[in-house]
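During the reporting period the student researcher (J.K.) took over the structure-prediction task from the postdoctoral fellow and processed the backlog of single-chain submissions. One of the processed entries is reproduced below for the supervisory committee.
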Amino acid sequence: MSNVCVFDHPLILHKLSILRDETTSVKEFRELVSEIAQLMCYEATRDLPLEEVDVKTPVAVAKCKRIAGKKLAIVPILRAGLGMVDGIMAMVPNAKVGHIGLYRDPVTVEPVKYYYKMPPDICERDIFVVDPMLATGGSASAAISFLKEDGAKHIKLLSIIAAPEGIERMQQDHPDVDIFVAALDEKLNDHCYIVPGLGDAGDRIFGTK
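J.K. obtained the following structure tokens:
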């Protein structure tokens, strides 16, 4: 799993333990998803290129480093992915945000795109596709395929919790995409929920269950 990063940072693990708890309120759950996404973004942006600049301080001129004009985009998979956007935007406020909406066809069981809106220069940007749960991997794989059809080349996937089945699907379909997860769980159950997981992330973020 050379292209998979599973975080072991104490802050992420602590927040994840509260996120999993069935008694965690909607407000706290939503805040934790955003906070974990922010911490994950810190690591996922580690390879951004830098350039040297001169900065005049009150004392002298300092040789400093700044991000070298890299264009970033955040693409949440609706609806649960929306919960991760604000946390990442807090770290990279100049990033553009696209949206992908998918539903599963009841006959073919394949993801179908019902909404797709991207910045016009999406093919020139480094893209973070975000979805809290990587279960079967079907939605994430389809979303990334749609982005590649649009000319996107530099894509990373950020999910809070993943199942081995989702990781395997992503590596088969998109071996060029780096995957960042806060936890790699045991398996999927018969209803394709991640075990032990945290339930339905969308329902817990938006209080719809």
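The committee noted the following: The mean pLDDT is 93.
J.K. will present the remaining backlog at the next meeting.
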